[in-house]
Design a protein that fits this description.
Strand order of the largest sheet of chain A: 1-2-3-4-5
Distance between the termini of chain B: 48 Å
Largest sheet of chain B: 5 strands, mixed
Order of helices and strands of chain A: HHHHHHEEHEHEHEH
Number of strands of chain B: 5
CATH class of chain B: Alpha Beta
CATH topology of the largest domain in chain A: Globin-like
Largest sheet of chain A: 5 strands, mixed
InterPro entries (chain B): Bact_StressResp_Reg (IPR051932), STAS_dom (IPR002645), STAS_dom_sf (IPR036513)
Number of helices of chain A: 10
Pfam families (chain B): STAS
Structural class of chain A: alpha/beta
Structural class of chain B: alpha/beta
Strand order of the largest sheet of chain B: 1-2-3-4-5
Strand content of chain A: 5-15%
Number of helices of chain B: 4
Order of helices and strands of chain B: EEHEHEHEH
Helix content of chain A: 55-70%
Number of strands of chain A: 5
Oligomer: heterodimer
CATH architecture of the largest domain in chain A: Orthogonal Bundle
Radius of gyration of chain A: 32 Å
CATH superfamily of chain B: STAS domain
Protein name (chain B): STAS domain-containing protein
Radius of gyration of chain B: 14 Å
Chain lengths: 284, 125
């Protein structure tokens, strides 16, 4: 197994130091070509210059192994670079190429003799590892973006609106799973308390299908609202959905269901007015 | 000597305001005290305010249902008011639906509901 002797590493470091500006310039050009001007040359040059410097430091103190403390700086720079690339919408290939391009740049000047070629191969292996690291960091960042967007979607898709004095509505859009039910329930109950409302209408016009699972979640929400002392109606049941519910044998129990939101609202408003009437009579 | 839950009288309504987490002995004492007070005062309604409770377990849940039933036996209607959203969600998850217990959003609505219930039969008569 060929071991990089200290003298080899030293020669490499000397070469890299001596021709620093040339290499960094070529590197930036190669990467810039692939990115087709979506990143300014100055910024790219600065980024790669820092990276080059860090690699050089790592080589000087840690040799060609590429592991351990010596390359910590390089790794954190690369992770930062991949994060930025992922956010700016570059492809994984373009991101990884930022590292691999250095191999292309260094190849002609390092492989002059057999000894140099051996050192170059080891350096290439090191750069491969670093390239993989960028790909990994890129994927991780993308996953973070996706999960945060899913969260935002959850927030966006469950509004609770006040329809009338004492009446709040929840227009549900999309499929109802247990995570969403939790969010809807929490929001609805909190709104009931905050707005001092006695009637809630859950509109399921935007729910594509109602199976036993979804029905179960709806029932839970209605029960919780009722337990807090509010009336809860389910509206927006399309004919197709009604047929499915009956065919599946889902029992909605004594939960009031109404076909259209407007009818549910009329009913709720009537009840609110009735209660207000009763209150006045109770005082007399 | 454990703490006792205070029972306040407002006209013909008894107000039970639970402000601390309940221990089992307090729950038993409350049941005794409340039934005694209903008989003593001839109250027509009981309002139990649980807005101070962060947690309602199955024991307290059953206590609410039992108290409601006992009060009804003695001629007083029970309203549980001020249940927090988190508590309602926990109870639903536990499968406790507090059957036979009337609820209202807050104390004010609870008192209104009692008045309405008292006025209701008279209107129809």
């Amino acid at each position: 197994m060929p071991v990089a002797t200290d003298s080899n590493t030293q020669r490499l470091v000397e070469t890299l130091t001596a021709r620093r500006d040339v290499f960094v310039g070529q590197w930036a050009d190669t990467v810039g070509e692939a990115l087709q001007g979506r990143l300014s040359a100055a910024e790219l040059g600065r980024e790669l210059g820092e990276l080059y410097e860090a690699v050089l430091q790592g080589l000087a103190s840690g040799g060609l192994s590429g592991r351990g403390e010596a390359f910590g700086e390089v790794r954190s720079l690369l992770i930062e670079l991949s994060r930025n690339r992922a956010r700016q919408g570059f492809t994984p290939t373009e991101t990884a190429r930022s590292v691999f391009a250095l191999k292309e740049v260094l190849e002609p000047s390092l492989t002059g003799d057999a000894e140099g070629a051996r050192v170059y191969l080891q350096l290439a292996r090191l750069l491969d590892d670093l390239g993989l690291l960028t790909a990994e960091a890129y994927v991780r960042t993308r996953e973070e973006i996706i999960s945060s967007q899913a969260e935002q979607l959850l927030e966006l898709s469950t509004p609770v609106v006040k329809l009338w004095d004492g009446v709040v509505g929840v227009p549900l859009v999309g499929t109802l799973d247990s995570a969403r039910t939790q969010v809807v329930m929490e929001k609805l109950l909190q709104t009931l308390v905050d707005s001092d409302s006695t009637h809630a209408i859950i509109d399921i016009t935007g729910v594509p299908t109602v199976d036993t699972q979804v029905a179960q979640h709806l029932l839970k929400t209605v029960l919780a609202a009722r337990m807090m002392g509010a009336q809860c109606t389910i509206s927006g049941i399309r004919p197709q959905i009604a047929q499915t519910i009956v065919a599946l044998g889902i029992e909605f129990g004594d939960v009031p269901t109404i076909a259209s939101l407007s009818d549910a609202l009329r009913q709720a408003v009537k009840e609110v007015a009735q209660e207000a009437d009763d209150d006045v009579r109770g005082l007399l | 000597m454990t703490d006792r839950v205070p029972i306040l009288r407002i006209g013909d309504v008894l107000l039970v305001s639970i402000q601390v987490e309940l221990e089992d002995q307090m729950v038993m004492d409350l049941q005794d005290d409340l039934s005694q007070r209903i008989v003593d005062t001839g109250a027509r309604g009981v309002v139990i305010d649980i807005s101070g409770l962060d947690v309602v377990d199955s024991f307290v849940g059953r206590m609410l249902a039992t108290n409601a039933a006992i009060s009804r036996m003695l001629g007083a209607e029970t309203i549980v008011v001020g249940m927090r959203p988190a508590v309602a969600m926990t109870l639903v998850e536990l499968g406790l639906s507090l059957k036979g217990v009337r609820t209202a959003l807050n104390l004010e609505r609870g008192l209104k509901l009692l008045r309405r219930l008292a006025a209701g039969p008279a209107d129809r008569a």
